[in-house]
Amino acid sequence: MNFKKIALAAALVATSTASYAWVGPFGNGNGFGDGVADGNFNFSMNSSVRGNGYGNGYGHPAYGYAPYGYAPYGYGYAPQAAPAMTEDQKAAFEAQQKAAAEFHKKAQEQMKVAYEAQQKAAVDFRKQREAQQQAELKAHQDQMAAMRKQMEEQRKASIEAHKKAREEFLAMRKAPVAAK
Asked: What is d(CA 132, CA 126) in angstroms, rounded to the nearest whole number?
């Protein structure tokens, strides 16, 4: 009997403390159910650095590789001057410089010609576009004038029809009513 009581108590504790999200085919039916949750999160990070050093720094009389008595290894030899060019090298260098200057001059002339051609094309395009716009404007103005003329004719015809109908109405009103 004690075993049954313990098992029943364990089952009761397990079911009462267990939580599950699905509550059956009731509610919104999405399987998540309704509930409340509380949470807490904490994050901390720390760092510390310490260091010690000793020695003789640059500029100190003992700086170097004491007690051996020689200075630290240097940074290489001083740069040497370029050897003098021979006459053939000088002539070739001057010819190369002259060719480069001529190439540069021709390139500048070609760029100038291309720029002028581009400017001329832009001016021609602008003139062509302005002529096209003027033609479109003239066509639009002609169409508007034709529409105004047509509307004026329709208005005059409407006024004439109205006058005629009024005259007929007044004539009918003045005419004696025939006896029945």
From this structure: 10
CA–CA separation, 92 vs 80, rounded Å? 23
At 128 the three-state DSSP class reads helix
Contacts of 7 (CB under 8 A, 6+ apart): none
Residue whose tokens read 């410089």: 97
pTM: 0.36
In this predicted model, what pLDDT tens digit does every residue of 19-65 receive, in sequence order? Answer: 555 555 555 555 555 556 666 777 787 877 777 766 656 656 555 55
Contacts of 31 (CB under 8 A, 6+ apart): 21, 22
Residues 24 and 32: their CA atoms lie apart, in Å, by 10
- Greatest CA span in the chain, whole angstroms? 155
